[in-house]
Amino acid sequence: MTDTLRCSSPPLLAALGRSLPLISRIVAAVGGGYALAALASVAVLALPVSRIQAVIGGMLGSFAVFAAAVVWVFAVRSATRAWIGLFVAALPLLPLAWSVWHGAAPAVSP
Questions:
Q1: Residue 78 domain-assigned?
Q2: In contact, 25 and 74? CB cutoff 8 Å
Q3: DSSP 33-61
């Protein structure tokens, strides 16, 4: 009986080990894609356009950014490259979003 329990454990761990990259990609697609889309929509507010146009443009653009992030995550060769790609795409957006969050974005009248 102990042999059966001992033998059934490694295939379960092996199956979990094989599915971890897929789980990582799903988390990267959903969570990372959402974070990237949110950063992009906030970063648009730093552009020198009226606030209404920036909000609408950011909302519309966030759908394209999210879709592109999901496609990217499942198109690259490994889950590690997917995460690195999301971080690299977020790097230029962070300073722009930071300036909006801290009130340093240009104020343009409508």
A1: yes
A2: yes
A3: HHHHHHHHHHHGGGSSS-HHHHHHHHHHH
What one-character-per-residue DSSP string does 68-106 give?
Answer: HHHHHHHHSSSHHHHHHHHHHHHTTHHHHHHHHHTT-S-
Q: Which amino acid is at 38?
A: A
pLDDT band at 100 (very low <50, low <70, confident <90, very high): confident
- Residue 109 included in any domain: no
Q: Is 13 a domain residue?
A: no
CA distances from 76 to 83, 85, 92 (A): 10, 9, 21
How many domains does the structure of the chain reveal? 1
Q: What single letter denotes the amino acid at residue 68?
A: A
Taking only the tens place, the pLDDT of each residue in 54-72 is 999 999 999 999 999 999 9
Instruction: Indicate the burial class of 39 (C-beta count within 10 angstroms; 0-12, 13-18, 19 or more).
Output: buried
- Let me know if residue 66 belongs to a domain: yes
